[in-house]
Every structure is written in structure tokens, then in C-alpha cells.
């Protein structure tokens, strides 16, 4: 039936002592011959046999732990796979030593030749208390996995069956590859683009693999590239890339690569392998025993998050006061220079008030990002996702969905973009729909402002409670969405568990600065623009007819002072209060005031008034603007010169109470994402319907939760 087809070429690869020879002998029996590879004394074993009428030529590659081309065996194995391009590589993996054996597997997958994994010696592994679920492993690595016991000749037919099937189905073969982190992938992309520009010839190599080898400083590949026309240029680029990686991670690229591979493997194994008797003993594993412990993991994670917000708060307090003082000084300077009128108001209230209000929180933002960078670079973030994996599985998502959510603590925009790591469309949409509940860095200034005003002693704890509420809401909403609009099981994934490392100062600073700079840039562009618009909305149309003639009243106060009826201090206070009431009437009359009044009936049951309504309205554009808008409202309606900071003004406002403040925070936490995030949501989901659903349901939920907080609090007499 298949006689006229060429024989299938199958290579056997694996670590020394993985039982490869036994399987080779089982399959080929007596039909084998031994020669030497040309030019070297390494044995070359080949065998021929027929299976289901298909002729198979089996090559036993020298046993190696890796394909890094350090030893002659590695070079032979690698060159055979690349140059002779067998139809399939059967990778023999010792199941009782699976993590070390899969290291070679990750490298085989990167070569792009179809791979089948033979989980060998599974009986020994079972005796040692390790059970690997080959179905899960196969799903995670996206390659066929067959259990075999070489010395008992078990699983041989299944292995060959899988080989034939894989050859027949070559086009659909798309294995999982290790994802080296962001900066590393950027270097790889830079190199592969250069390959195209300089028209590098690849013969049988895959460009990404060549790029990886150049960063790894692989001597063979460097020789191969150097021989080509523009080769030296490429090698130079690779050297620069190596330098950048080295200074960022404080380690050679080769170490970073092997760390990521082991992280990938250890993530795959912790999903696919159950240990009946614990026998994990290296340092990283010992730390993991605590950090990803089924019971201890969550409290540790919660404690670290709590610590993060308290640090952000306490350490940020002083520098924040310095910036506040600087901004106030700048305002005073402008008031002194500029003639009173619209221009002065625009610059002082609109621009300095708006942008200054946001820049004040830069120290907190930088601290938050610094802590996140430390958690990411040490390898803890991956553990956090792993800890959440258990909970996430129960509610119908994968732990990997928690990664975009964690990124959401920084900013919703990259969080939505990173949801691409979820291959499953449903998983991706559900994750995107709840990412908004993870408090982004832009909301932090609002929390700090409000908590500093109403709970100065316990600000850090109140902020933590809001973040925690966000996480809990996200989890509840996943459960709800999964059981209503988005039914179905979620696809399994590899959660990479990179080894712990001490982060380099340089990498921390770069990560912190990149994100803080985005925040600053936003303050200088988007927020500046919106602050001006909000100032305009709060200033026009100007009111010409006031309830009382405030100018005349001020005049009267001056006369009373001159005739000695009141003191200078009393005169000042009277005039200030008249100006304040006049300004407040002006705001109420303005476009913004009208919008606020329009929203007021809707938000009144939540304890919020039209001024907070204006702030919420402004928050559609960007969450930071909530702060600058409050600043403008209180700046334009300047009442009492004594309390300089916005916090004190809020705290001393008779209309607000801690309960109202908390209700406001809950609303800010949950309602729709900012414009930038909505634009990205639309681009990533490609569906206007999903965007409208996102905006609608988050805002409705925000209203409902704030309603429960405020009305419930009133019933309990907390108001």
C-alpha cells in the first residue's frame, strides 16, 4: 500500500540513560547496523523496519542533555536534525527525571521539526512517587506524548502510530515555544528583522532559532553567519543585543535563556505532574513550598500586596508634600505675575491645578511600579499567578489570566494588550471584561487623595481594602460571565515558573522609569488637554446675574472694617466667603455644573453630589483627571485660604463624610475604563458590541455596589 513512498526518517533523541537504546533495540530488532559519523569516532546507529506497510528508517542520535553545541555529540545531534531534516524526532524523556529531561525538549521544539515525546520509565517514576498526566503535558506543549516502558516493550506500537499520524498531519503542528521575556523578545525581533534586510540565507535554519543562538553566542552559528555577505554586521548587532541583555539582567544571555527554559518546564511539570511523595529539594523549590503552598500561598500574596500599598503610601508621603509645595509655589508665582482674569484662571486653575494635581502623585506611582518591578524581576509575580491558578480554575479561567490582571494594577492598557497570551478567545474576552476591576496606577492618586482626607491614620489599609474589593469583584464577575454569556471550559496553559533571581538595580530602575515616564507623559499631554477642557466647562458660560450683589457686600465689609466695627481678619474672611460663594454659583451655572446637575439625581442614592458628578464625568477621559477636576472645582471655588491642600478642603467640607467618600471610591474602582483603555479594548476585541457591554456593565455594577455601600452604611448608622 505505501510501498512506493520513500521511507520515513525518524530520529531518536534524548538524554544519556533515558532508556533510548532499549527503545531503539525494541523497534529495530536485528535490523540495525553501526557505523561512525563522518570524521568523528562517535557511533552512528541506524535501523530499518516496517510498520503498517510503511518503511521506517530509524536513526539513534547520540545522547545529549542539550543542543548548545559544546560537545561533539551535541553538534552531531543538532546538525543531523537541521541538515538531514528527519520527518519526526522521537524525544525519549525519563519520566522519573522529567524536569531535567525536558530541557532538551524545549530546544528540539525550537528547531521546528515535528517532535513526539516518549515518556519512558513511567513505572520507575511511579515508584518514586511521580505521576505525569501525559494528556495534560501533551496539551501544554502542543505535541503528542506517549507513555512507554522500554524494558517491558510497552507503548512501542502507540509510539509508531503517533509518528505516522504526526507525519500525515504535519501542517497542523504548532508546538508551544518558550517565551523569553519582553526585552529579550525585542532583541530577537531586532535580529530577525536584520536578517530580512540583509537577505541572510538560512538553508534549513529557522530565523528565530538563529537569532536565539547568536544571542547565546553559539560558535557554530556565528561561523555560519560570518561567512555570509552582511554577516559581520549581523554579528555586531547580536553583540550589542548581548550587551544590553547582560546589563539589564546582570547575567549572560545564555543564563537568561536557560532560566526561562527551566521556568517554562517547571511550570509545565507543576501542571502535569503530581508528586505523591515530596522529593523536591533545590532552593527555589524550598521557597516555592511556602510561596505556592495551597494554603499559605494566598495569605502570603495578600500580605505582600498589603505591604505594597502601605509602603507606597508611607514612603510617598514626604516627597509628595515637597511636590505639593512646589506646585503651590508655582501657582502663587503665576497669580503674582499675571493680571487677574481668564488667562490667570486658565493657567493657575486649569493647567497648574490640573497637571500639578496629577504630578503630585508621581512619588507614589514610582514606588508602586518599583515594587511591581521587584516582584516581577525576582520571579514572584509568576508565583502569584500560580497561586491564583487554583482559584481561577475553580471559577472557570486559567491562572494565566491572572497575569493581565496583575499588569492591570499598573495600567489597564498594557493589561488588555497582554491578554493576547491567552490563546482561547473566550478566555481572552472574559479576562478583558474584568481587567478594569484591577485598580490601575491612575486610580491610585484618587484613592490617596480621598483616603488621606478622610482616614489620615489608616490610609494604607483603606487603599488596600479597595484593591482587595477590586480583585474579589473581578473573581465574582468571572464566575458570573462564565456561567452566563461565556460558557465553556478554558484551555490549559503553561504557567512559567522562572527560578528566583536577585534583580539588578539597572533592570528595576529601567522598569520603574519606563512606566513612570508614561504616567508623566500622560500628565503632560492627555491630562493637560482634558484639564483645559474641564476648566473651560467649569468657567463658561459665565454668570452675569448673581443671587446677591457680592461686590456690594464686599464693599460693605471693607467699610465696616474702616469704621472699626470688624477686625482685619474678619473682613478678609467675609470677602473670601463672598468670592467663594460667587465662584461656586459660577461653577453651578457653567456647562460642567449643568452636566453635574444632570447626573446628580442618578448618583444621589449613592450619597454623591453634583460636584463629585463632574469629577466622575471627567474620569471617563482618564482616571487621574478625577483628582485634577476636584482641584479645579475647589480651586475655582476657593473659599478658605487657611487649608492649602486639596485633602484638607475635602476633609473640612460639611457635605462629605467618610461613608460618602467610600461610596465614591467604590464607584471610581468599578466604573468604565478610561478612553485610552476603551480604544485598546475595541482594537483587541474587534467588537463594538463587546465594548458597549464592557462600558455598560461595569458602570451599572459600580452604581449598584456604591448604592449598597452607601445605603447599607446608612442603615448601620455609619453616616
What would you say this structure looks like, in words?
- Strand 3 (43-51) and strand 4 (54-60) form a beta hairpin.
- It contains 32 helices and nine strands.
- Helix content is 64%, strand content 7%.
- The strands form two sheets. Strands 2-3-4-1-5-6-8 form a seven-stranded mixed beta sheet, sandwiched between helices. Strands 7-9 form a two-stranded antiparallel ribbon.
- It is elongated, with a radius of gyration of 33 Å.
- Helix 18 packs parallel to helix 31 (675-685) and helix 26 packs across helix 27.
- Among the domains are: 8-172, P-loop containing nucleotide triphosphate hydrolases (Rossmann fold), CATH 3.40.50; 182-279, Helix Hairpins.
- By secondary structure, it is an alpha/beta fold.
Assembly state (oligomeric) = single chain
- The amount of helix comes to 55-70%
Strand order of the largest sheet: 2-3-4-1-5-6-8
CATH H-level homologous superfamily name of the domain at 8-172: P-loop containing nucleotide triphosphate hydrolases
Percent strand equals: 5-15%
Q: CATH architecture of the domain at 8-172, please?
A: 3-Layer(aba) Sandwich
Query: What gross morphology would you assign?
Result: elongated
Low-confidence stretches: 277-281, 637-643
Q: How many DSSP-defined strands? A: 9
**Distance N to C terminus:** 85 Å
Would you tell me the overall average pLDDT? 84
The profile of the biggest β sheet is: 7 strands, mixed
Helix segment tally: 32
Fold-level CATH name of the domain at 8-172:
Rossmann fold
Radius of gyration: 33 Å
CATH class of the domain at 8-172: Alpha Beta
Which secondary-structure class do the elements indicate? alpha/beta
Amino acid at each position: 500500500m505505501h510501498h512506493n513512498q520513500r521511507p520515513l526518517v525518524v530520529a531518536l533523541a534524548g538524554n544519556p540513560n533515558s532508556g533510548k537504546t532499549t527503545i531503539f533495540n525494541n523497534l529495530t530488532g536485528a535490523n540495525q547496523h553501526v557505523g561512525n559519523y563522518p570524521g568523528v569516532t562517535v557511533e552512528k546507529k541506524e535501523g530499518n523496519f516496517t510498520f503498517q506497510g510503511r518503511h521506517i528508517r530509524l536513526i539513534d542520535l547520540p545522547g545529549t542533555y542539550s543542543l548548545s553545541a559544546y560537545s561533539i555529540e551535541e553538534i552531531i545531534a543538532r546538525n543531523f536534525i537541521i541538515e538531514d531534516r528527519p520527518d519526526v524526532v522521537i524525544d525519549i524523556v525519563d519520566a522519573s527525571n522529567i524536569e531535567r529531561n525536558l530541557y532538551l525538549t524545549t530546544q528540539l521544539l525550537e528547531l521546528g521539526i515535528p517532535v513526539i515525546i516518549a515518556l519512558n520509565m513511567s513505572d520507575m517514576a511511579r515508584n518514586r512517587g511521580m505521576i505525569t498526566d501525559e494528556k495534560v503535558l501533551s496539551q501544554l506543549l502542543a505535541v503528542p506524548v506517549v507513555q512507554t516502558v522500554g524494558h517491558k516493550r510497552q507503548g512501542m506500537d502507540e509510539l509508531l502510530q503517533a509518528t505516522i499520524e504526526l507525519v500525515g498531519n504535519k501542517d497542523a503542528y504548532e508546538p508551544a515555544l518558550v517565551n523569553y521575556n519582553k526585552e529579550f523578545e525585542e532583541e530577537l525581533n531586532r535580529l530577525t528583522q536584520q536578517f530580512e534586510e540583509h537577505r541572510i540565507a538560512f538553508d534549513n535554519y529557522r530565523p528565530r532559532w538563529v537569532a536565539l543562538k547568536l544571542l547565546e553566542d553559539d560558535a557554530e552559528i556565528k561561523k555560519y553567519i560570518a561567512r555570509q555577505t552582511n554577516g559581520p554586521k549581523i554579528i555586531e548587532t547580536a553583540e550589542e543585543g548581548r550587551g544590553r541583555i547582560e546589563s539589564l539582567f546582570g547575567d549572560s544571555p545564555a543564563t537568561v535563556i536557560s532560566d526561562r527554559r527551566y521556568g517554562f518546564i517547571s511550570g509545565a511539570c507543576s501542571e502535569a505532574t503530581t508528586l505523591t511523595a515530596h522529593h523536591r529539594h533545590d532552593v527555589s523549590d524550598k521557597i516555592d513550598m511556602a510561596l505556592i503552598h495551597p494554603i499559605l500561598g494566598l495569605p502570603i500574596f495578600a500580605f505582600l500586596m498589603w505591604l505594597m500599598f502601605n509602603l507606597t503610601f508611607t514612603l510617598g508621603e514626604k516627597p509628595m508634600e515637597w511636590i505639593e509645595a512646589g506646585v503651590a509655589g508655582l501657582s502663587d508665582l503665576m497669580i503674582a505675575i499675571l493680571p487677574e482674569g481668564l488667562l490667570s484662571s486658565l493657567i493657575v486653575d486649569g493647567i497648574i491645578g490640573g497637571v500639578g494635581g496629577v504630578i503630585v502623585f508621581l512619588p507614589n506611582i514610582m514606588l508602586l511600579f518599583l515594587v511591581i518591578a521587584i516582584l516581577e524581576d525576582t520571579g514572584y509575580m509568576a508565583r502569584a499567578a500560580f497561586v491564583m491558578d487554583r482559584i481561577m480554575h475553580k471559577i472557570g479561567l486559567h491562572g494565566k489570566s491572572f497575569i493581565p490582571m496583575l499588569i492591570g494594577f499598573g495600567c489597564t492598557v498594557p493589561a488588555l494588550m497582554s491578554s493576547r497570551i491567552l490563546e482561547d478567545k473566550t478566555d481572552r474576552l472574559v479576562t478583558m471584561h474584568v481587567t478594569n476591576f484591577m485598580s490601575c496606577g491612575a486610580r491610585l492618586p484618587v484613592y490617596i487623595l480621598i483616603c488621606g482626607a478622610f482616614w489620615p491614620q489608616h490610609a494604607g489599609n483603606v487603599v488596600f481594602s479597595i484593591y482587595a474589593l477590586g480583585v474579589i469583584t473581578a473573581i465574582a464577575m468571572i464566575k458570573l460571565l462564565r456561567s452566563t454569556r461565556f460558557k465553556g471550559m478554558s484551555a490549559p496553559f503553561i504557567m512559567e515558573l522562572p527560578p528566583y533571581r536577585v534583580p539588578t538595580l539597572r533592570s528595576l530602575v529601567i522598569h520603574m522609569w519606563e512606566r513612570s515616564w508614561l504616567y508623566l507623559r500622560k500628565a503632560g499631554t492627555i491630562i493637560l488637554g482634558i484639564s483645559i477642557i474641564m476648566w473651560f466647562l467649569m468657567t463658561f458660560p459665565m454668570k452675569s446675574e448673581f443671587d446677591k450683589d457680592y461686590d456690594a457686600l464686599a464693599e460693605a465689609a471693607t467699610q465696616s472694617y474702616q469704621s472699626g466695627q470688624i477686625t482685619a481678619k474678619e473682613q478678609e474672611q467675609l470677602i473670601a466667603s463672598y468670592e467663594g460663594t460667587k465662584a461656586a454659583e459660577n461653577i453651578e451655572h457653567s456647562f460642567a455644573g449643568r452636566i453635574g446637575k444632570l447626573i446628580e439625581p442618578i448618583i444621589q442614592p449613592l450619597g454623591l453630589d453634583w460636584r463629585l458628578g463632574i469629577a466622575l464625568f471627567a474620569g471617563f477621559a482618564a482616571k487621574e483627571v478625577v483628582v485634577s477636576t476636584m482641584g479645579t472645582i475647589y480651586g475655582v471655588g476657593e473659599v478658605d485660604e487657611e487649608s492649602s491642600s486639596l485633602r484638607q478642603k475635602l476633609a473640612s467640607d460639611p457635605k462629605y463624610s467618610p461613608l460618602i467618600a467610600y461610596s465614591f471610591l467604590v464607584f471610581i474602582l468599578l466604573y468604565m475604563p478610561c478612553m485610552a483603555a476603551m480604544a485598546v479594548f475595541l482594537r483587541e476585541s474587534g467588537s463594538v458590541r463587546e465594548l458597549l457591554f464592557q462600558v455598560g456593565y461595569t458602570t451599572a455594577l459600580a452604581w449598584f455596589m456604591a448604592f449598597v455601600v452607601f445605603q447599607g452604611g446608612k442603615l448601620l448608622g455609619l453616616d
